[in-house]
Amino acid sequence: MEPAEKASAALVLIASLIGLVGADDNAIGTGSILSATGNTAWLSSSGKFAFGFYKEGSGFAVGIKFFPIPNSHYSTVIWTADRDHQPLSANANLTFGNEGLVLHLDEGDRIITDSYDGSLQLAFASMKNSGNFIVYDSEYNIAWKTFDNPTDTLMAGQKFPIGHNLISSVSENNQSSGRFRFTMQRDGNIVLSPVNTPDTETHAYWALKTIGYNGLVLDDDGSLRLAGLNFSGQPLIPRLNSSQGVSVHFLRMEADGYLRIYSTNQSGLMMVSAQIPADNNKCFIKGACGLNSYCNSTGNGYVNCLCFPGYVYIDRSRVFVGCERNFTRWSCEAVNGSTGNRAFYKISTLHNITWSDDSYNISTVKSDHECSDACFRDCDCYAALFLPSTKLCNKQRYPFQYGRVLLDQDEPTVAFFKVGLAEQENQLSVKPVSRENLRMLGTVPLVLPLLLTATFAIVLDFLIFFLCRYRMGTYRRLCESMETGLAKAMAPRSFSYKQLKDATDGYKEEIGEGIYGKVYRGLLPPCDAGTPIAVKKLKNVRGKVEEKFRNELKSIGRVHHRNLVRLLGFCHEGSDWILVYEYMNRGSLADLIFQSHEAPPSWKQRVSIAMDVARGLYYLHEGCDVAIIHGDIKPENVLIGDDGIAKIGDLGLAKHLQPGNHITYTRPRGTPGYKAPEWAKPCDWVSPKVDVVSFGILLLELLCLKKFWHLQELDGEFNLASWAYKYLKGETKWQVPGGDVDAEELQEMMKVALWCLHGSPEKRPSMYDVVMMLGRKKIVEFPPVPLLDWNNRADSDQPPMADVERG
Ligand SMILES: *[C@@H]1O[C@H](CO)[C@@H](O)[C@H](O)[C@H]1NC(C)=O
Ligand SMILES: *[C@@H]1O[C@H](CO)[C@@H](O)[C@H](O)[C@H]1NC(C)=O
Ligand SMILES: *[C@@H]1O[C@H](CO)[C@@H](O)[C@H](O)[C@H]1NC(C)=O
Ligand SMILES: *[C@@H]1O[C@H](CO)[C@@H](O)[C@H](O)[C@H]1NC(C)=O
Ligand SMILES: *[C@@H]1O[C@H](CO)[C@@H](O)[C@H](O)[C@H]1NC(C)=O
Ligand SMILES: *[C@@H]1O[C@H](CO)[C@@H](O)[C@H](O)[C@H]1NC(C)=O
Ligand SMILES: *[C@@H]1O[C@H](CO)[C@@H](O)[C@H](O)[C@H]1NC(C)=O
Ligand SMILES: *[C@@H]1O[C@H](CO)[C@@H](O)[C@H](O)[C@H]1NC(C)=O
Ligand SMILES: *[C@@H]1O[C@H](CO)[C@@H](O)[C@H](O)[C@H]1NC(C)=O
Ligand SMILES: *[C@@H]1O[C@H](CO)[C@@H](O)[C@H](O)[C@H]1NC(C)=O
């Protein structure tokens, strides 16, 4: 035995003596190893749970399997490490050592217990009979456990704290993240909804409102209980119970969108003892079918996803992904009144269907024909829904979500879809761009097919995961080897108060003032290469706020990107915090576009700045394991360096998400006039999509060299979005300043900006989409009508709130 192994064996012995690892537990000491092909696993003493490699697809995954009857052939996977990782090769090994559970792969090592950030070494682990795999540190504290990181399954006795998600798997045989989620929202609502949607009523297909509880627990008797301030208290309302299951129960968010509780009897027969929602009509599961399609129940528990007229499947082999248009919309100026319309479109009718209402114009009409005609004549109309009982004609925004066939007892509807004519029917010999051409351009029209994006995101995450992992690995090692020159370059360093006072010559030259404090120019001493710096003083950062702020610094410190202003270091004395950033000597984008009217930036420069900002934001949102929301994107916060490269600054406002969560809760923040509509409602959900809106506004300002608001002189339009829409339709004469503007490029970029301003976050492009569209790697569809009641008008808003105080 190696000395380390001896020590660990002793620890395991002591642990079992003091009862941590019960006599019936199998303790796993450091030095233990499993291999993918070794056919071994770490078992619970009951033999019902096995931690180890299991086969998935063409390779392997690491996880926990549950055998209701030990040694029987039936088993089910209850937990998977890194579920969205591609299957592991047969060479993979897993070791347990002082640094935790480490996967050894051909492409390098990965730490599974990576969320453990304590100072003690990890000493032993145990597969419990509850299904929990626990890792202990050398003082016998629980350092990490699988119950804290559930995937789609909750075991009996497992706690499910408020704010957490269970995400369904792709299928029974594929544990990657699927399409549905079960969440106990922070507002107390317990909700089932599609993944990647905000926590709003529109997207929930089952919800239970509770107040004052802070989690759920699946009780040993199979009832799902609401848990109060602590989990050990008396059982609270037994909301959902199950029939008399004899043995272990678990609850699973299933691939088909249902939440089911399972029990097993002594023969090991797995039975469903409760199901939510109770209704077996799967068409009520929002997200059962993707955008631009509708769900038709076949009656025997299956559903059909059918495209709306004029739309075709994005992926014929996975029809639930949704549909896209089989024609390209002609821009309005190409259409010559209704004559032009008739040359390109016809109307197709569908009875008794519905979808999530997103109307931009509702009017009372005399007949269904009048409604169909109104849509036909309106360039902006893609579809209209007519309600015969009330004679209301609802013109709808594109795309269409949560379509389904109505039930017999529902009020009948008539839907009209504008459908592109095929070439031979086309009266003018103008050739529409066919889908094949779109495909050849490597594009998917901007429909945001959630799953396609998700697939890509998984691949991308995978790449980024390795890049980040590699960098962080380097970072850790360098820190251990103390202040080498490289370490200084990698991580923000700590400065003394005096150093900064000297560097700024006693805070002499003020170069700006933000809502948090003043910014000064400084110069590091020659031993630090005489680097120019910007020094930002923050006042009164105390208590809880300070804790948050420290965490913030940790994540910002790790962010490195060409289009983000670097944080070089900080200084902390009392409640004063001073941040040291790289100095950007050409000032802010606001100065450049709003103030230099004699020499406006060239068109080329405007395009390159737009791309810089988009790339920087894309990196913040998707570049690392934690998504960072900037929260205050505006021209004042974009700085221009010597080389003309634009960088996003003031990451101090950044609010980041917990790993695995795609949304976070926060109070309204950001600057009035640049805020997403969803900021306006307090305590509402917030996702990286709020930055997309701010980016859209910034982009319009950058393109037009005008403020978004206060534009009385622009054809009577009061904001740049309505004006840009008019411009795209060829209805305005005002020209964008600058002699060298490329009109075609301008139009494309305006379209991108208008999509960014979409009122519904889920229909807004992600920053990835934006980068692709700006880079002409993706075709930009004609945008929908901009939101009319834009509720963040600068004049109707409260003053901005500082995040350092409110977080
Ligand atoms: C599981 O599903 C994901 C997403 O659809 C896919 O990318 C992955 O290849 C699948 N894995 C296996 C093993 O089939
Ligand atoms: C896994 O272990 C085996 C035997 O110890 C070794 O040959 C193989 O290279 C290891 N694989 C990796 C990826 O480390
Ligand atoms: C936690 O539960 C125990 C009972 O197990 C109870 O006595 C205690 O008051 C509870 N604490 C809180 C904060 O609810
Ligand atoms: C809960 O259990 C009780 C008695 O065991 C039963 O009457 C009731 O119908 C059950 N409720 C549900 C939702 O299954
Ligand atoms: C388990 O359930 C199945 C089906 O309900 C039943 O046929 C079987 O007898 C049960 N076994 C025991 C031991 O209760
Ligand atoms: C829905 O499916 C049924 C058959 O299951 C079919 O008769 C009906 O026409 C379909 N409805 C629509 C609107 O496609
Ligand atoms: C699109 O599909 C519809 C049927 O849904 C068809 O009538 C139309 O001709 C197609 N248009 C093109 C341009 O292929
Ligand atoms: C467009 O409209 C004008 C006048 O309304 C008419 O003269 C012209 O022929 C139309 N063009 C087409 C292509 O229909
Ligand atoms: C709605 O559309 C009708 C024509 O279809 C038009 O007369 C009316 O002005 C529109 N209303 C708004 C608010 O745009
Ligand atoms: C739509 O539903 C109504 C009421 O269920 C029914 O009377 C009508 O025939 C349906 N229309 C079509 C075209 O199926």
TrEMBL record:
Source superkingdom: Eukaryota
Top-level EC class: transferase
Transmembrane regions: 446-468
Pfam families reported for this sequence: B_lectin (PF01453), Pkinase (PF00069)
GO biological process: response to other organism
The protein's Enzyme Commission number: 2.7.11.1
Annotated Bulb-type lectin domain residues: 25-148
Protein's UniProt keywords contain Nucleotide-binding: yes
Entry's Gene Ontology cellular component terms: membrane
Family annotation (PANTHER family): G-TYPE LECTIN S-RECEPTOR-LIKE SERINE/THREONINE-PROTEIN KINASE SD2-5 (PTHR47976), RECEPTOR-LIKE SERINE_THREONINE-PROTEIN KINASE (PTHR47976:SF7)
Family: Belongs to the protein kinase superfamily. Ser/Thr protein kinase family.
Name of the protein: Receptor-like serine/threonine-protein kinase
